[in-house]
Design brief:
By secondary structure, this protein is mainly β. The protein has one domain (24-175): Coagulation Factor XIII, Chain A, domain 1 (Distorted Sandwich). Helix content is 6%, strand content 24%. The protein has helices spanning 57-60, 145-151, and strands spanning 24-30, 33-34, 80-86, 109-116, 130-135, 155-159, 168-175. The strands form two sheets. Strands 2-1-3-6 form a four-stranded antiparallel sheet. Strand 1 and strand 2 form a beta hairpin. The chain is globular and about 40 Å long. InterPro entries: AA9, AA9_LPMO. Residues 23-176 form the Auxiliary Activity family 9 catalytic domain. Its EC number is 1.14.99.56. It catalyses: [(1->4)-beta-D-glucosyl]n+m + reduced acceptor + O2 = 4-dehydro-beta-D-glucosyl-[(1->4)-beta-D-glucosyl]n-1 + [(1->4)-beta-D-glucosyl]m + acceptor + H2O. It is an enzyme of class 1 (oxidoreductase).
């Protein structure tokens, strides 16, 4: 079994042109089983974007809701995971036309993994991220990955590649608008 230490997730990267378009990844499900809000994930305290993609904030975002979860979510290679996005770091807060994100803000949704010695480490740098999922523009339907996030009420589902070696990893799921 591959153990993925999914304790961190970059909530998103978005342009600063639209303040209502931001979203936060704050919950994960494995094979349809929800792991709980902020369990195994470093949830940022706001939906503000990381603007400097060469900063260490791209690894884990910044200003996390405290206490930061020390849980490690176990995921086997080949299993299905679902990232849950919402407009607020607190998750779904009731009717909000911008939940999980502003539907007019279009862009791809991507997921990356990076191997780490310990998924609970809070000050990692220099990670070797590799992409495991992308939902970009569908030229036939003219829909972006962000459209699918909105339609699916904030859920993005993808498989952890079956070729992933056992170990601890950080998962970054992002919506780029």
């Amino acid at each position: 079994m591959t153990v993925l230490g999914l304790v961190l997730s970059l909530s998103l990267l978005l342009s600063t042109t639209t303040t209502h378009a931001r979203t936060v990844f704050s919950e994960l499900a494995v094979n349809g089983v929800d792991q709980g809000h902020a369990v195994g994930i470093r949830v940022p305290s706001s939906n503000a974007p990381v603007l400097n993609i060469s900063s260490n904030d791209i690894i884990c975002n910044k200003k996390f809701i405290q206490p930061v979860s020390q849980a490690i979510i176990k995921v086997a290679a080949g299993e299905e995971v679902t990232a849950h996005f919402h407009h607020s770091p607190a998750g779904f807060q009731g009717p909000d036309p911008a939940d999980p994100l502003d539907p007019t803000n279009k862009g791809p949704v991507l997921a990356y993994l990076a191997p780490v010695p310990s998924a609970t480490e809070s000050d990692v740098t220099g990670l070797g991220w590799f992409k495991i999922f992308e939902d970009g523009l569908d030229p036939d339907t003219h829909q972006w990955g962000s459209d699918h996030v909105f339609t699916n009420k904030g859920n993005v589902t993808f498989l952890i590649p079956p070729c992933i070696r056992s170990g601890q990893y950080l998962l970054r799921v992002e919506d780029i608008g």
